[in-house]
Each structure stands twice: as structure tokens, then as C-alpha cells.
């Protein structure tokens, strides 16, 4: 399992639209996902230990960001043929079990992950209300295990700044996680 780090935030990069099926049976796109003050597009999956380590914190932060007009959507782009734990059926089970407060959608063709330049799970893309990229950092200091409960909440603080000012913090610490599991072509 390769661990990868996300690139530095490309401030102002415009979000690319998508139309993906969610585990709720509905189709989701940028317009349906966007909040009044921004949108967090998260590339996650079911099997990755980095994602598993932060699920509770991610749910907490997304719920709190919603109160500030920032919505979130989670995209699963891995190849479930190679990683059955990431199947659409298992995505639905995980979302229900954890009561995800955001749509969990399947990027079956992997085109959305490629368009966004997603490299790992978790990979966070935080956009302002004009859908301009302002955050591409980590959730917090967690790795394959959750960090201490009182660590700095990088993603939450960064997206709160985006909600309030439209601009993300200039200094961001990259997210780290498992590589996206690309289909062999």
C-alpha cells in the first residue's frame, strides 16, 4: 500500500462539475452539493486505514461546517474489482452505519478523480462560494491512527476561514493517505 501526499493548493482553480450516483440512489453534481459559503469535495474510500482513522472527526467537522454554509460531498474512485471493500454496496453500508452527513458518491469511471488530480484517500478539495479552490490540506495530524483529541483541526479551521472570507490559509499541510486504486487499462 503506497502512501502519498497531496500537492500544494492551486489557489483559484475552478471546481469541475460531475454527475455521480450516490448511495442514497440520487445523482449529485456541483450545484446540488454546494453550500452558500463553499463546498468540500473529499476523495475517500472504505478500506483505507487513513480514512478509517479520521471518520469520526470528519463527520464532526462536516456537521460543524454545515452550520457555516459549507457543504461536503464524498467521492469514492477506487477500483472495487481490486478492492471489494470499496464496492458500491459496501459504500452504502458504511454511509448508513456511520450516518454520513454528506452524499457519498461513486466515481465508477474514475474520470472525476482524474479531472481533480486526486492522488490519495483522503484527499480534500475546499472551494469557496465561487467554487474556487482555497484548501488542499489535511484534516488534522492523524495518520493511520487518530491523532490526540486536542490537535489542531486544520481542515475545519481552513474551511471556516474560507466560509468567512472566501480565501483559504496560505500555509497548508498536505493530506497523506493511500493511493487512489486506479483500474489497469
Automatic annotation (TrEMBL):
GO terms for molecular function: antioxidant activity; oxidoreductase activity. Gene3D superfamilies: Glutaredoxin. Residues 9-144 form the Thioredoxin domain. InterPro entries: AhpC/TSA, PRX-like1, Thioredoxin-like_sf, Thioredoxin_domain. It holds the Pfam family AhpC-TSA. This is AhpC/TSA family protein. It comes from Nitrosomonas aestuarii. The lineage of its organism: Bacteria, Pseudomonadati, Pseudomonadota, Betaproteobacteria, Nitrosomonadales.
Amino acid at each position: 500500500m503506497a502512501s502519498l501526499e497531496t500537492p500544494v493548493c492551486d489557489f483559484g482553480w475552478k471546481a469541475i462539475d460531475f454527475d455521480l450516483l450516490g448511495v442514497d440512489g440520487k445523482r449529485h453534481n456541483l450545484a446540488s452539493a454546494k453550500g452558500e459559503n463553499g463546498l468540500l469535495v473529499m476523495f475517500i474510500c472504505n478500506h483505507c486505514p487513513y480514512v478509517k482513522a479520521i471518520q469520526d472527526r470528519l463527520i464532526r467537522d462536516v456537521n460543524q461546517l454545515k452550520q457555516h454554509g459549507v457543504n461536503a460531498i464524498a467521492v469514492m474512485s477506487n477500483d472495487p474489482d481490486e478492492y471489494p471493500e470499496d464496492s458500491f454496496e459496501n459504500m452504502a453500508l458504511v454511509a448508513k452505519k456511520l450516518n454520513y452527513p454528506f452524499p457519498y458518491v461513486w466515481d465508477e469511471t474514475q474520470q472525476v478523480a482524474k479531472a481533480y488530480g486526486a492522488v490519495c484517500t483522503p484527499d480534500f478539495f475546499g472551494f469557496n462560494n465561487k467554487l474556487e479552490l482555497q484548501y488542499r490540506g489535511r484534516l488534522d495530524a492523524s495518520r493511520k491512527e487518530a491523532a490526540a483529541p486536542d490537535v489542531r483541526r486544520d481542515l475545519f479551521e481552513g474551511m471556516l476561514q474560507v466560509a468567512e472570507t472566501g480565501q483559504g490559509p496560505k500555509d497548508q499541510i498536505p493530506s497523506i493517505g493511500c493511493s487512489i486504486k486506479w483500474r489497469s487499462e
